Amino acid sequence: MTKQALILIDIQKDYFPQGKWPLDGVEAAADKAQRLLKAFRQAGDAVIHVRHEFTSQDAPFFTPGSEGAHLHPKVLNEHHEPVVLKHFVNAFRETHLRELLEQRSITDLVVVGSMSHMCIDGVVRAAADLGYKVTVIHDACATRDLEFNGVTIPAAQVHGAYMASLAFGYASVVAADEFLTTQVAI
């Protein structure tokens, strides 16, 4: 029997407008993530939150113990929902995420959060390589403009390129509304 879990990646205060590293479209993405969170809770499916903290006080955001490193109020965990603390892009690296999934016999992951080009990409590729069936809810993910070789790449293009890449070989990539209307368990 298929067992799914919602994995909320780095939906933290520093990524929002008053934070140290605001993302493009983060409010809309968090609203979609909040809808999914509510649906998973109502269905009784597993929910795991992932929170990033850098190990250095010199980090540009998510500094250890800072307010900005806290989960955003839109997606706060309930007491029975674990929060995985990570220090690397890949949420499986040096964390107990895989153990939590195995304890719950999870086979399918639904991934939302930030940033599309970093931690979403990292966890999705790792999860697929570990044998999980992965779905990314593209409109519940956010990123920001990037710069490469003197050229600014707009956030929408960064996001689109990463979602296209993940859809090519690592995950099903769908909109929140589509997922919520087509999933029997929810």
Category by helix and strand content: alpha/beta
In the CATH hierarchy, what is the class? Answer: Alpha Beta
Q: State the strand order across the main sheet.
A: 3-2-1-4-5-8
Radius of gyration equals 15 Å
CATH superfamily: Isochorismatase-like
Low-confidence stretches: none
Question: How would a crystallographer describe the biggest sheet?
Answer: 6 strands, parallel
Q: How many structural units, i.e. domains?
A: 1
Separation of termini?
A: 15 Å
User: Approximately what portion of the residues adopt beta-strand conformation?
Assistant: 15-25%
The number of distinct helices, counting runs of at least 4 residues, comes to 5
Look up the CATH topology: Rossmann fold
Helix/strand order = EHEEHEHEEEHEH
The averaged pLDDT comes out at: 96
Number of strands: 8
Which CATH architecture?
A: 3-Layer(aba) Sandwich
Categorize the overall geometry: globular
Helix content: 25-40%
GO molecular function, one term: hydrolase activity
Keywords: Hydrolase
Domain Isochorismatase-like: 5-149
Protein name: Nicotinamidase-related amidase
Explained architecture:
By secondary structure, this protein is an alpha/beta fold. Helices cover 33% and strands 23% of the residues. The protein has helices spanning 26-43, 97-103, 116-129, 155-169, 176-182, and strands spanning 4-9, 46-52, 83-86, 108-114, 133-142, 146-148, 151-153, 172-174. The chain has five helices and eight strands. The two termini are 15 Å apart. The model has no long low-confidence stretch (mean pLDDT 96). The protein has one domain (4-182): 3-Layer(aba) Sandwich (Rossmann fold). Helix 3 (116-129) runs parallel beside helix 4. The strands form two sheets. It has a six-stranded parallel beta sheet with strand order 3-2-1-4-5-8. A two-stranded antiparallel sheet has the order 6-7.
